[in-house]
Amino acid sequence: xGSPPLSGICITRWLxxxxxxxFSRLILYLVISDFFLVYPHSLDSDGFRRILTPTLNCAKSAxxxxxxxxxxxxxxxxxxxxxxxxxxxxxxxxLNFAKAGKSVGPxxxxxxxxxxxxxxxxxxxxxxxxxxxxxxxxxxxxxxxPLLALALAPHLAYLLKENIPIPTDxxxxxxxxxxxxxxxxxxxxxxLVGNALWQLGML
Length: 203
Hints:
By secondary structure, the protein is mainly α.
């Protein structure tokens, strides 16, 4: 009959109560990532939330290896085990971090990479397209800027493909920033629009 669905409680206990040694925590994240690659069930919303919270916390770690491990776990859980409701939760949490400016320095790259692992859907894509362009226009981390543009492109393409209206203020931002006086921002927006049109087969 297969194993029963995982509630997320036991794994959460491992994440929170494992020894506070960097190596132990790192190995734990790698083991859990591998576990979810073969686990046959999806996570319910509560289980997903219990995994998401410590994963996002570790994405802000001062240690680059821990940040990378949290990204690997997020990728597996979101792509393999998350329901549509869970993906909406994930995008809202990530966007809240980005809007609040709680993520600074190298971990903004992890944050934006996580956004890039969220597959397009009406709810997720609307949330990203209506929020990210303004963030991208103000982004000062040159290493993170192209990652954010790359994460946004498939969601912009999805809304265009499905004929879902894009707010006029977002269209204005896209048009304005493609002519930005800041080379990094201008390149990011030109690449963003170009990638979206490419994915639509229009280029």
